[in-house]
Amino acid sequence: MANVAKSAGTAGIGTKKSMFNAANAQKFLAFGALLILLLFFSMASPFFLTFDNIVSIMLSTCVNGILALGIIFVIITGGIDLSIGTVMTFSSVMAGVMITNMGMPIWIGILVAIGTGAFCGFISGTVVSRLKLQPFIATLGVMMITKGLSLVLSGTKPIYFSDTPSFRKITTGSILTFGADGKFSVPNGIFIFLGMAILAGIILNKTKLGRYNFAIGSNEEATRLSGVNVVKWKTAIYSLCGAFAGVAGIVMAARLDSAQPALGQGYELDAIASVVIGGTSMVGGEGTILGTVIGAFIISTLTNGLKVMGVAQEWQIVITGCVLVLAVLLDTMRKRGSK
Q1: Does residue 47 sit in helix, strand or coil?
Q2: Computed over its alpha carbons, how large is the radius of gyration of the chain?
Q3: Could you tell me the residue range of the domain that residue 65 belongs to?
Q4: What angle do CA 148, 153, 157 make, to 5 degrees?
Q5: I want to staple 113 with a disulfide (CB 3.0 to 4.6 A). Which of 95, 165, 258, 338 is the partner?
Q6: Cβ count near 325 (within 10 Å)
Q7: Strands 184-187 vs 174-178: parallel, antiparallel or unpaired
Q8: How far apart are alpha carbons 301 and 295 in whole angstroms?
Q9: Is the dihedral of CA 57, 63, 68, 70 positive or negative?
Q10: Three-state helix/strand/coil letters over 26-43
Q11: What residues have CB less than 8 Å from 151, skipping those under 6 apart?
């Protein structure tokens, strides 16, 4: 069985390599689009290309980017997870309950938040892989459950971390300062995001889970017939996605210095958009971490640039939606051209 599983993993690698050129083309296209956005907004507003605004863009990218790094694993399998936004919120509320309400140390709150996210992902993965429910329906249900639990546990009110000022430093504190008297500083949240991106890259490209991830997305039935326990690995993939949502919950709560139970819903759309813009195919079997990081920066740069230019929020949503549709259309055209 071990040899059969190994051969299945090798098949997954073959699939990934066969799509290397196409994935890279989409990735470089996304990077070019990011450069164009930076150039356009820099010319459109003198307030865009300032250190404070660039830091603001990077901080905005942290939460969405970490969510995108989690959901890319699910999308590569050909699935979807609509619950990551509310799972993120539920994880932050659980951290608030542990740290503020129960007086637990910060590290315990962090572990509980990540564990909560992983458990929610495990539930979604189990329902999808073992009970054969469509990912859209299964994760929609988990989204509603976690949204409700967040409101119940918090009493529909924010949970503040004012008694633990060091918690806020997780995201807004800085281990890197420069300039006269430390005038310029890079928030820790940015390093957390980059660290999570490196971790996601290692998991996707250097581990058995990553190999089976591509194999399942390329041909789930063939992977199953090769002797791979698809149920187990699919559940693990959804659990991993949930764990990333838990990390995003900590980063978000630390940035706001509170767990906001009403937040979360809608974040999954930006995360999915980041993944698709970065070149991951919605039908599965293809995707890169670097492309996802670039896609996350495109979303946050676009939102920030439109805000700096004074574009109304409702139009920001419309424009972001158009960009997402365009990215999916380009992916579809590319796949048709490769046949």
Answers
A1: coil
A2: 20
A3: 2-338
A4: 90
A5: 95
A6: 12
A7: antiparallel
A8: 10
A9: positive
A10: HHHHHHHHHHHHHHHHHH
A11: 261, 262
| Residue 177 phi, psi (nearest 5) | -130, 150
Backbone angles phi, psi at 185, to 5 degrees: -140, 145
List helix spans (H) across the chain: 2-18, 20-44, 51-76, 84-96, 106-129, 135-154, 165-172, 188-206, 208-218, 220-225, 230-256, 267-277, 289-308, 313-338
Between CA 121 and CA 123 the distance in angstroms is 5
**According to the model, what pLDDT value does residue 20 have?**
47
pLDDT for 126 equals 96
pLDDT at 11: 40
Question: Of 155, 145, 148, nearest to 101 (Cα)?
Answer: 155
Cβ atoms of 210 and 204 within 8 Å: the answer is yes
- What local confidence, expressed as pLDDT, does residue 170 receive? 92
Longest Cα separation, the chain: 63
If one counts the domains in the chain, the total is 1
Residue 151 is part of a domain; what is its CATH number?
1.10.3470
High-pLDDT (> 90) share of the chain, %: 61
DSSP designation for 141: H
Question: In one letter, which amino acid is 339?
Answer: K
- Higher pLDDT: 99 or 49? It is 99
Give the percent of the chain with pLDDT over 70: 88
Kindly report, residue by residue over 57-116, the tens digit of the pLDDT: 998 899 999 999 999 999 999 999 999 999 999 999 999 999 999 999 999 999 999 999
Mean pLDDT score of the chain, rounded to an integer? Answer: 87
Tell me the two tokens of residue 251: 């980063």
- Mean pLDDT computed over 290-299: 93
d(CA 28, CA 5): 33
User: Alpha-carbon distance 193 to 188, whole Å?
Assistant: 9
